[in-house]
Design brief:
Layout lengths: L3 H6 L8 H25 L2 E4 L2 E4 H16 L3 H4 L1 H8 L14 H12 L2 H13 L4 H25 L2 E2 L5 E2 L2 H9 L4 H38 L12 H17 L4 H28 L4 H13 L7 H17 L6 H5 L7 H8 L1 H21 L2 H11 L7 H12 L3 H32 L3 H20 L2 H25 L1 H17 L14
Antiparallel strand pairs: 1-2, 3-4
Helix pairs in contact: 2-11, 2-22, 3-8, 3-14, 3-22, 5-16, 6-17, 7-14, 7-17, 7-19, 8-13, 8-14, 8-16, 8-17, 9-10, 9-22, 10-19, 10-20, 10-21, 10-22, 11-21, 12-17, 12-20, 17-19, 20-21
Protein name: Alanine/glycine:cation symporter family protein
InterPro entries: Na/Ala_symport
Membrane topology: Multi-pass membrane protein
């Protein structure tokens, strides 16, 4: 009896597996109006600079600007302290918490460096043009201070349990921030954040990953003419991926997660090395590419929506990539071994720098320098009103110009990045689920089944719809989270003053190497 993929490869689904195609159509048909409805509410616009600007985007921009002013540009003045803390100079192995500063940063970066940097950037330079890169970089720099604030709060208000484990992040500092307004407001804000985080985890941390993994797998197996381009193949692919994810989050095959956690840093290194090869391979084109990025940031084509339109695209994609202000990273950072909450704020600042300023910029430069026909055709199509293409394919075609076999390597990297992110976000999303529905074996099992179903849906639905819905949920998360950050800013400033004063008066000293937290 032929397997499902064998039938698909033989191009027989129209006769034998037509129900798969119909199922895909039903899923797309059901998801599109939901995405459109949610997006119309979350991204309500006002006319600015000749384009319709979503007010919610400026919510994140404003936070980054205000926090940067409030802390006197700590992104620049605190970099040396960040480096010292990552090296463990001020944290002992005996300090409360579970992991070192370096381990917390590595875990957080592994959750953000991935498809947002590959597919998200590919979509950004198509929708907003090369100039979107400039605004992504600026958003990354501003996001460094946002991470500083939210991760300091995540540690300050964390709960260290008797067994040494830690619970932290917005679920512990939101109740403190909103307690002054009464129990109803406090519970409402925590509930809103939990719902939004769950949906963003299910869509952005789940469906987006599955969607672009499928897109790149299709790209390297012959595109629309290959066996993964046939009707129903996306559904079969999604089911297989969901089974693999389920094997890990249901607790059966822990070795998969362990192997992936070792391979992902390696694939990240290979990806950055490939970017470097492409960029240096056209060394003479670098000044022109940088010039294009800067000039089109301030004088973009009309099709890109003018300066405001390009700025919006850049900030949206940066936010999706580094998640500054969303409230997800503090959940990981709160597990750090330290007695000084602001110390992890310093460390967390490095996350948007690595994720957005370095990795996203390298991806964008690779695409702009390669200047492929696919990229130019996609820009023209989007300007004419067509949906954005799969961002991962835009990036893949850029690599293919210089490294013909690299799309296959990229397909493996994308799969590993996606799998790692899926597992990480299953943890984040479970925290939101248990906040809403309580902790029990039955409740957690229901969540895991639902999470795996979203993997299947993500493999099937249209890329533009996934991106739109994920963006909407990301910004909803940022509303209660950043409100709490504003309310608790004086607490962060006091933590910063105490830490600096401790270093000046000698109560906080450099820890001997043999006593430092290193794991």
């Amino acid at each position: 009896m032929p397997t499902a993929l064998a039938v698909l490869a033989a191009d027989e689904p129209a006769q034998t597996w037509g129900w798969l195609s119909k199922t895909e159509d039903v899923i797309n048909g059901a998801f599109e109006p939901i995405s459109d409805a949610v997006g119309s509410v979350v991204f309500a616009t006002v006319p600015i600079g000749g384009t319709d600007a979503p007010l919610i985007v400026f919510w994140l921009v404003a936070a980054g600007v205000i926090f940067t002013i409030y802390f006197h540009g700590i992104q620049a003045t605190g970099l040396k302290t960040s480096k010292d803390l990552v090296q463990g100079k001020y944290s002992r192995a005996s300090d409360p918490g579970e992991v070192s500063h370096f381990a917390a940063l590595s875990s957080a970066v592994s959750g953000t460096v991935g498809l947002g940097n590959i597919a998200g950037v590919g979509a950004a330079v198509v929708i907003g043009g090369p100039g979107a890169t400039f605004w992504m970089i600026l958003a990354g720099l501003l996001g460094m201070c946002t991470k500083f604030v939210e991760c300091t709060l995540g540690v300050k208000y964390r709960q260290v349990h008797e067994d040494g484990t830690v619970t932290g992040g917005p679920f512990t500092y939101l109740p403190v921030a909103f307690a002054r307004f009464g129990a109803g407001v406090s519970k409402g804000m925590v509930g809103l954040f939990a719902v939004a985080l769950f949906l963003f985890g299910a869509i952005g941390g789940n469906m987006f990953q599955a969607n672009q993994t499928m897109a790149q797998a299709r790209e390297v197996t012959g595109g629309e003419d290959g066996f993964l381009g046939s009707s129903g193949s996306a559904l079969v692919f999604g089911i297989v991926l969901a089974l693999l994810v389920g094997a890990v989050i249901l607790g059966g095959i822990n070795s998969i997660a362990k192997v992936t956690s070792r391979l992902v840093p390696t694939m990240a290194f290979i990806y950055l090395a490939a970017c470097t090869l492409v960029i240096l391979g056209s060394f003479g084109n670098i000044p022109g590419a940088i010039g294009t990025i800067i000039s089109e940031a301030f004088a973009p084509t009309a099709a890109a929506g003018g300066v405001v339109g390009v700025l919006i695209v850049g900030f949206q994609r940066a936010a999706f990539s580094n998640e500054a202000g969303v409230g997800s990273s503090p959940i990981v950072h709160s597990a750090v071994k330290t007695k000084h909450p602001v110390s992890e704020g310093f460390v967390a600042m490095l996350e948007p720098f690595i994720d957005t300023v370095v990795v996203c910029t390298m991806t964008a430069l690779t695409i702009v320098i390669a200047d492929t026909a696919y990229y130019n055709d996609a820009v023209t199509a989007v300007a004419g009103g067509a949906d954005a293409p799969d961002g991962v394919v835009v990036t893949s075609r850029a690599f293919e110009t210089f490294l013909p076999q690299f799309p296959v390597v990229l397909a493996i990297a994308v799969a590993l990045f996606a799998f790692s992110t899926l597992i990480t976000w299953s943890y984040y999303t479970l925290k939101a689920w248990t906040t809403l529905f309580g902790r029990s074996t039955t409740s957690e099992m229901i969540f895991k089944v639902i999470f795996c179903l979203f993997v299947v849906i993500g493999s099937v639905v249209n890329f533009s719809e996934v991106l739109s819905f994920a963006d909407a949920m990301l910004f909803v998360c940022a509303v209660p989270n950043l409100l709490a950050c504003y309310l608790l800013l004086p607490k962060v400033r006091q933590e910063l003053r105490d830490f600096r004063e401790g270093r000046r008066n000698g109560t906080i000293t450099v820890v001997p190497e043999e006593e430092r937290a290193t794991t």
